[in-house]
Amino acid sequence: MNYSAYALFIIVFFCVIASYRKMSLFSPLVINCFAWSVSFVPGIFFYEDYYPITNSVFTAWVVWFFVTNILFIKFDPQNPNRFKESCTSSLEIKFNYQYIIYILALVLAYRIWVVGSSGPSQFFLNLRLGTMHEIGYQTLGLIERFYPLILALFVFENIYESKNNLNKRIALWLWMALFALAVMGKFAILTPILIWIGIKILKKEITVKTVFFITIFTVLVMVFMQLIRSDSKTSTDYFKLLSIYTYSPIVGLGYVNFNLSPLFGANSLRFFYAISYALGFNNTPVNLIFSYVEIPVLTNVYTVLYPFYMDFKIGGVFVFSVIYGCVFGLLYKGVNFKNTFFMALYFIFLPALFTQFFVESLFSLLSLNIQVTFCLLIIFIISRKSDANC
To answer: 3-class SS at 284?
Structure first.
């Protein structure tokens, strides 16, 4: 059975609700619908190239999708303030820190050269495998520890965009671009672009046509990155290649057959086990790089459902869908408090919602998310009012 058609029918149903309620394009419900359509639309066309989605996985997806969307509707502001109205006063960091960012960018560029040119594989594959901490490959080192701070600054400066902070925004864009090159990761490309588009949409400073062209450009860059970092075995059928990254995860979840950790909630609660392991109290936490399954193409990503479904089956999917729905619903509702800190947090966590068809990153990257949140809090504390407009 091709479950993609049923899934798209459900997605359209919620899209109609979003349209009727005049929800923003970057409301959690709309992003939820768009994210999963990215997965199931290719499923309509490439269904025969993959094993079928299993009944239990589709049931788990239905539970996840309905629960999160119902909560997104529940928390959606009935009379939301416009983004500009929530910026009651523009903020700025009264310190020309862009010169420090440029120095960090030079250090990052140097580490890119060292890691890329020192490994046993080709330059770009060395970068990717170094990021994955494969044996025999160098890593970026301490410079990547600055990512949480840079990301928090990036969100802050783009929310409070003005002529006064142009140089800071240029420096931050440069560092983020170099970081994407350094880790050879599509997620690192998508994150700043998605955040920037979201801010522009909520400010009503960008057209749908522009978003469309930026999306096409982003996809092309991500495909290009995949090709240059590959070992020449990557498929040159570009549409099929896209389906591997969009449709195969929901299929692959039903065919996971590798041994799992004996720890209770090993995937869902990995953050706490990692802390416990660092303190010497338990066995090694599960690896965030999963094993491959054949469906019949190889895939090792299994959607946002993977940790909760593998640990606790449908019950876990239900519980964590409630958590996801509350987290993103409340963050989005926070704009009604006329406090852009909540909106900034929403943008920081936005990639986790947008890429849920691909991988879970709210809990699996909880350490990073906590670091970024802490950095953002400090930034808002030290920032001061500016004469510039939001």
So the answer is: coil
Rounded Cα distance, 43 and 36, in Å: 11
- What does each C-alpha distance from 32 to 56, 136, 352 come to in angstroms? 21, 40, 10
pLDDT in tens, 299-346: 988 999 999 999 999 999 999 999 999 999 998 888 766 668 888 999
Low-confidence ranges of the chain (pLDDT < 70): 1, 78-89, 231-238, 259, 336-339, 387-390
Q: What angle do CA 127, 132, 136 make, to 5 degrees?
A: 70
Which position has the token pair 């930026």? 214
Q: Do residues 108 and 140 lie in contact, with contact meaning Cβ atoms separated by under 8 Å?
A: yes
Could you tell me the two tokens for 346? 């929403």
Q: Which helix (H) or strand (E) holds 298?
A: strand 298-299
Query: 3-class SS at 389?
Result: coil
Query: What does the pLDDT read at residue 209?
Result: 87
What's the burial of 287, exposed, middle or buried (CB within 10 Å: 0-12/13-18/19+)?
exposed
Residue 150 main-chain phi, psi, to 5 deg: -65, -40
Q: How far apart are the first and last CA of the chain?
A: 50
Where do the structural domains in the chain lie, given as residue ranges?
Answer: 3-385
